[in-house]
Amino acid sequence: MKRNKLGLWLLTALVVGNMVGSGIFMLPRSLSAAASPAGVLLGWAVTGAGVLMLALVFGNLAIRKPELSGGPQIYAKALFKKSRTLSVLAGFMSSWGYWIGNIAGYVAVITTFASYLSIFFPVMNSKNVLFTVGAFELKAGNAVTFVICSVLLWGTHALILRGIESAGKFNFVATVAKVIGFFLFIVIALFAFQQSNIGPFVDTRTSGGETVGLLGQVNSAAVATLWAFIGIESAVVFASRAKKEGDVKKATILGLVISLIIYIGISILTMGLLTQSELQQSQNPLVDAISSILGSTGGNVLAIVGLISLIGSTVGWVLLSSEVPYQAAKQNVFFTSFTKVNEKGMPTVALWISNAIAQVLLLSTVSNSIASAFDFIIYVATLAYLVPYLISSVYQLKLGLTGETYENGKGRALDIVVAVLATVYSAWVVVAGTADIKTFLLGVAMIVSGIIFYPFLLRSLKGKKEEKDIKQSA
């Protein structure tokens, strides 16, 4: 029973691996532009506290509702359990949006991997035209990039088909390697830190021609840092594959602490290696920062750490993206065909369909029109990532207020307080993270677009029920 199960450290590696991806390399620049050092520190404090509440919510739900496995979006089903129709519809819509958003997310990780690899292989930037069809030109660099991205995608696919434990161990090795690399960066930066580079600890920033004070900077910094925590739910998604139920909560909190140390350490220390002006103008702040100490060799080593980081993130996100519809199908809120697994227990249909969609999106590396469409999907997928956090928090609050799963009342009051704080933070994240009403409405449209496939889901569930009735009567 314990074979092909994930222990505490493999679950923790999935959390850290999915949270610490490509975003860490540009985050110091984004934060420097958004806020002064004081604003950055306060922004991290707000985000860290909010995400800690979410981590506690995820951990509590994994223990109190172990039957609801598959990710935070699945709690939408349980919120409306009194109405079966509404329950299935809510579960399907949230799972649909979250699934599509995750696929777009790991395609972005794969294309980022290619951009880092091009540092070592200039041919990937070649502008030589291989052939032309009408207005379309296929350049050598784009063709090589497409092939490399496809190899990474399907290599990850083959690895995952070998079983959750094999994929988990690979992700663990990649995560350990990048954690060591980032901690070495932090140690080196500590010795080379120049306080004079930070400049005024409290200073103004400008946005849209207007001066932004400290409070506005904290808001901007908190919005920038919240993206660092996408993936905090990873252990919850794989709850049904954990060796112990309690490991899900431990892995979520442990993964959060490790990621926080890396993110805060790097974003703060980078400000002491480059001046604020250099940091805001840098196209690759971490590489520039380490190169200022160790030269080009240090920059190349960090680029290799980035490649390892992205490979690990690819494995983690592809795993997660196939697990989401698989678990949703087991909960009867997704197509029953997605429950099919191979002899290793891996969801083959979910994996093949997810990666087939990803392969189509990878055409963005060879076509500007497809690239624009892909950018649009990433843009509107924002809400699909954030809404499940709010759903989870509200569901935990509901459990606390109704007393469900709290037979002896132990811990109920504290869990209600945590749920309230997580709900407030999640609501703010949805509002702030979608930036404007256009992003919000387009995000809602993407989630609701699943309604097109809803009749097929009902037909699928009807067929499953009829098959079950036949077996029972036989």
Structural class: mainly alpha
Using the 3D structure, state the CATH architecture. Answer: Up-down Bundle
Profile the largest sheet.
Answer: 2 strands, antiparallel
Under CATH at level 1, the class stands as: Mainly Alpha
Q: Give the integer mean of the pLDDT values.
A: 84
**Outline, from the CA principal axes?**
globular
Q: For the terminal residues, how far apart are their CA atoms? A: 30 Å
What's the CATH H-level superfamily name?
Amino acid/polyamine transporter I
- Tally of helical runs: 20
Q: Reading side by side through the largest sheet, how are the strands ordered?
A: 1-2
Low-confidence stretches: none
Number of strands: 4
Helix and strand pattern: HHHHHEEHHHEEHHHHHHHHHHHH
Rg result: 23 Å
And the CATH topology?
Answer: Amino acid/polyamine transporter I
Describe this structure as you would to a colleague.
The protein is mainly alpha-helical and 474 residues long. The chain has a single domain (8-473), classed as Amino acid/polyamine transporter I (Up-down Bundle). Helices cover 71% and strands 3% of the residues. The radius of gyration is 23 Å and the shape is globular. The two termini are 30 Å apart.
